[in-house]
Design goal:
Layout: E1 10-11, E2 17-18, E3 21-28, E4 35-42, E5 47-48, E6 51-53, E7 57-70, E8 75-79, E9 83-86, E10 92-96, E11 102-109, E12 122-124, H1 130-140
Antiparallel strand pairs: 1-3, 2-5, 3-4, 4-11, 6-12, 7-8, 7-9, 7-10, 7-11
């Protein structure tokens, strides 16, 4: 058994996120496992860009209310204690609602044998537009203040 040290929380890169998003790395593999896990905190209105994962991703909400949306317009509300699995290759986004923070553990398999051509388990794409973000609120039946989504 190995106890892992607490890692510093860092602000996520603006090129992959809209709004203020903070990441505390929890686990990054140990040479025998490529499992990665991070605690991600989204402020209201903050969200990821569209992206996909070579091996899928498990999101486990710890606090707040968030959205997980796919390119086909399917959106689910994610609350504390709930989880969402996004299958390999599915383009999606996740983040807080326009009025609520959301924290989740992001867990994925970084197995290089099944990763993208660049060797990354995550393929980052373009930002989710304010229109797409507002539409995700509507699809999920969550009230949205369009101005709150503008960051």
């Amino acid at each position: 058994m190995d106890k892992n040290a607490t890692n510093p929380t860092v602000k996520t890169p603006a090129e992959n996120f809209t709004g203020d998003v903070w990441l505390t790395p929890v686990f990054g593999g140990d040479g025998t496992s490529q499992l990665t896990c991070g605690l991600v905190r989204f402020t209201p209105g903050a969200r990821t860009n569209w992206h996909s994962h070579a091996n899928g991703q498990l999101l486990v909400c710890t606090d707040g209310i968030g959205l997980v949306g796919t390119r086909d317009g399917q959106t689910v509300v994610l609350r504390a204690g709930e989880s969402v699995w996004t299958p390999a290759g599915e383009e999606h986004f996740h983040g807080g609602t326009s009025t609520n923070m959301m924290c989740h553990y992001a867990i994925l398999d970084g197995d290089a044998a099944h990763s993208s051509a660049s060797g990354e388990a995550t393929t980052w794409l373009e930002p989710v537009t304010d229109e797409q973000y507002t539409a995700a609120h509507s699809a999920a039946g969550v009230s949205s203040d369009a101005a709150a989504g503008e960051q």
